[in-house]
Amino acid sequence: MKKIFAVSAVLLSSLVPAFADEAPIGQQIVDALNKVYGVHPGFRANHAKGIVVEGTFKGSPDASRLSKASIFDGSAIPVTIRFSDAGGVPNVADGSKGLPHGMAIKYHLKDGSETDMVLVSLKFFPVSDGAGFRDLLLATAASPPNAPKPTKLDAFLAAHPAAPAALASTSTPDSFADEEYYGIDAFIFVDKDGKKQPVRYMMQPEKLVHLDPADAAKKAPDFLVDELPARLAKGPVTFHLQAQLAAPGDQTRDPSKPWPADRKVVELGTLTIDKVDPDSLAAQKKLLFLPGALAPGIEQSDDPLIDVRDGAYVVSFGRRNP
Ligand code: HEM
């Protein structure tokens, strides 16, 4: 019930325009994604290609000290996970140059509620807010291969140095299981006494394996989506969820600015994946992961991207499930 209310509240806010003559930012972004990638009925406007798997998460004692959220109580929490290729093209080649990969996790809590984490293989975001993301997409749409140089995209990237740096921070893994994924947006952990700690999530594989770009280009178009079921048939896959802790004074508002690499990292728990959803295509259509769907003990930071993302994901969900 709580979840339905949360989704309707987001849906409502995503439908209320900031100005009477302007669509809400989430809708503008989904329209811009459709311009870049085309409309593919039944598929997500972004991260259209993916695979759904199942497993469990077990929180660590350190996690339960930092946050009172029940996902960290140490019990085995069932999870549904969707790995994906970024972009809105459902048959994109998994090894496409510069293509980030996603990992979305839904934790099924004992009280029947759910909480989500939506991570990507970029180390930080190319822009700091929703308008920036919309403008990056519009510049991309206006810069086809035959566009005169410098293109609108060239101009955008030159004016936003974080964008090319962020896009260069990812490369093709040899498996969805051998990649690291980042939460990028800051969230706030709240402990039993109400003490708050800003964090950013990182999901670490047992081993990180990136391909040489020339080898990635030679891979079959579906090699990542095909490899995961084959790997799981041989045994479970493990990830370690970690939190990078902000130091006092670290900003939490701008997802294009990572915190210094020497910030403390805490092990939050172990994620074990043991099976593929037998009908992944049908399952992914019904699934909606929202970065702002949080459990008590985890709060949103002042990062404006979280609300923009919730709005856009709901618009995209509505269009792929008309
Ligand atoms: C303004 C910023 C962003 C916008 C507007 C945006 C937009 C979208 C949209 C429209 C979808 C499809 C949602 C659906 O149909 O369910 C999507 C999916 C996704 N996004 Fe974003 N995104 C943004 C930033 C990010 C960031 C910062 C991350 C990671 C930290 C991320 C990771 C993902 C992933 C992993 C998916 C696939 C989720 C799934 O498997 O259902 N996105 N995004």
Topology (elements, then pairings):
Blueprint: H1 2-15, H2 25-37, E1 49-59, H3 61-66, E2 76-85, E3 101-108, E4 114-120, H4 130-141, H5 152-159, H6 162-167, E5 181-182, E6 187-190, E7 196-205, H7 213-218, H8 223-234, E8 237-245, E9 265-276, H9 280-286, E10 298-300, H10 305-320
Helix pairs in contact: 1-10, 2-4, 2-10, 4-5
Bound molecules: protoporphyrin IX containing FE.
Residues 29-30, 44-47, 50, 82, 84, 102, 104, 118-120, 125, 130, 133, 183-185, 255, 287-289, 305, 308-309, 312-313, 316-317, 320 line the site of protoporphyrin IX containing FE.
Shape: globular
**Any idea how many domains?**
1
**String of helices and strands:** HHEHEEEHHHEEEHHEEHEH
What's the CATH first level? Mainly Beta
Distance N terminus to C terminus? 22 Å
**Number of E strands:** 10
Q: Label the structural class.
A: alpha+beta
**Secondary structure: helix percent:** 25-40%
CATH architecture descriptor: Beta Barrel
Low-confidence stretches: 1-6
CATH homologous superfamily placement: Catalase core domain
Q: Can you give the mean pLDDT? A: 94
Which radius of gyration do the C-alpha atoms yield? Answer: 19 Å
Could you tell me the CATH topology label. Catalase HpII,  Chain A, domain 1
- Tell me the fraction of residues in β-strands, as a range: 15-25%
Largest sheet: 10 strands, antiparallel
Enumerate how many helices there are, as a single number: 10
